[in-house]
Structure formats: structure tokens, C-alpha cells
Amino acid sequence: MHIFPWQYDFVHTASESVRQILEKLEEGNQSSMSRKTNIPQPTIGRIAYGKTMPDLSKLETIASAYGFELWQLLVKGFDPIHPPVDRKSTRLNSSHIP
Hints:
There is one protein chain. By secondary structure, this protein is mainly alpha-helical. Helices cover 56% and strands 0% of the residues. The chain has helices at 5-25, 30-37, 41-48, 56-65, 70-73, 87-90. It is globular, with a radius of gyration of 15 Å.
């Protein structure tokens, strides 16, 4: 697979996130992820190990199957046990503080 330098971060971050889900939520079982997502197991493997440029629809399918949003899988250092949160949506509105 040939990727351009600007694509490397995307592929690396996405594959690392999928690998983290596999390792921490599926005990490394690509077949289980395949069943949950209806994505063929060989495709899961290629995504998880950076052998293919994952398309956003597949990443969105994986994210959704595990209760995440697509953007979370694209955050460097993604941890499925402690996923990133959207601070804007969780910020307290100061007008509601007594």
C-alpha cells in the first residue's frame, strides 16, 4: 500500500484505535469484531495493522458497534476504557451553578 505523507497520521491513528478496541474489548479476537460490525475479518486485520487506508464508513461502523463516535477513534492515544470526551458538550453552564 502506498500512502502519501499527509495520510500517514490518519492511517496510524485509525489503526491504533481499532487495535486498542481489539486488545482491550475483544481480547484480540478479530472474528468477534467482524461479527459485531459485519466487516470481513481480513479487512478488520488490515485496518488494525495499518495495511490499508480505512474508509470513514468502516471506521464509523466499528465506532458505533462499540458505543463510540467516529471522531473518538481519530484522536491520537485513543483508549476504549477511557475514551476522549467532547468537553464542549460536558461543560457546565455557569448560569446553572447556584
